[in-house]
Specification:
It comes from Bradyrhizobium neotropicale. The chain is of the alpha/beta class. Helix content is 32%, strand content 27%. The protein has helices spanning 44-52, 74-79, 97-103, 117-123, 140-152, 170-185, 197-201, 221-226, 228-235; strands at 4-15, 18-29, 33-37, 59-64, 67-68, 82-85, 158-162, 190-194, 206-211, 214-220. The longest helix has 16 residues, at 170-185. The mean pLDDT is 95. It binds adenosine-5'-triphosphate and magnesium ion.
Length: 237
């Protein structure tokens, strides 16, 4: 078994005086696609923000390949090798598609340059003909692809995606799903927060389930598929 890329342990996060996360822990190994599943308000985005230093945990620890990164500022955490695509995607709407990609370019934590723009266009063939378009005029699905592509341009050791399927038409959700399966097949390490369990069942290798700010289940994806009780109790709408 390969080593953990990210190890999250015992995170407590508060917004003001209300506690949102209670001892959250999870880990993602090299090459895994981990789905962080849970209902609306369960704490998925907060977990991602805590990992990224955007909602600093009051207790607990996040390690990236054995090095503790919790306590650092968000930009330092990103530089250490975490690539985060937030719910609102945060592309630069006034810039072209290609400028958005170029802005995201940086070497990985070990100096990797695995995502030259040529490879980005091979993996995201829909973006190439749009390269001179203003990003703010793209459809929601195109913007989501651009946000993922731009983040990959930074050669992250771990890609974190918050609800990549949210608000997109079913056909586009399918496209994003194919893309994520492709990333898994080329060995990328990914953590996806999703309410949409069905979207994840076909592309994740593992699943962690969060409910009311606590981790209630973690297993391989086939185990979750076979576990009606967990799916019904924590993931049914
Ligand atoms: N800025 C904030 N201030 C106070 N409470 C917040 C804030 N952001 C989120 N919360 C609360 O924290 C809890 C967890 O929210 P979070 O956004 O992490 O859930 P989520 O699992 O990502 O949900 P969704 O599927 O709707 O994106 C919710 O009860 C939410 O109302
Ligand atoms: Mg969320």
């Amino acid at each position: 078994m390969s080593a953990a890329v990210i190890e999250v342990a015992d995170l407590d996060v508060y917004y003001g005086t209300s506690q949102i996360l209670f001892g959250v822990g999870l880990s993602v190994r090299q090459g895994e696609t981990m789905a962080l599943l849970g209902r609306n308000g369960a704490g998925k985005s907060t977990t991602m923000k805590a990992i990224m230093g955007l909602a600093p945990p009051r207790r607990g620890k996040v390690s990236l390949r054995g090095v503790v990164i919790s306590g650092r500022k968000p930009h330092a955490i990103a530089r250490a090798g975490l690539g985060f695509v937030p719910e609102d995607r945060q592309i630069f709407p006034e810039h072209t598609v290609e400028d958005n990609l170029v802005i995201g370019k940086k070497r990985g934590p070990d100096g990797q340059d695995e995502w030259p723009i040529k490879r980005i266009y091979e993996v995201f063939p829909l973006l190439e003909p749009l390269r001179h378009r203003i990003a703010g005029r793209l459809s929601g699905g195109e913007q989501q692809m651009l946000a993922i592509a731009r983040t990959l341009m930074g050669n992250p050791a771990l890609l974190l995606l918050d609800e990549p399927s949210e608000g997109l038409a079913p056909i586009i959700v399918q496209r994003i799903g194919e893309l994520l399966r492709q990333l898994r097949s080329i060995g990328s390490t990914v953590l996806i927060a999703e309410q949409n369990m069905h979207f994840c069942l076909g592309l994740a290798s593992h699943a962690t389930v969060i409910d009311k700010g606590q981790i209630v289940y973690a297993a391989g994806i086939d185990d979750l598929k076979a576990n009606d009780t967990i799916r019904r109790r924590y993931l049914a709408l």
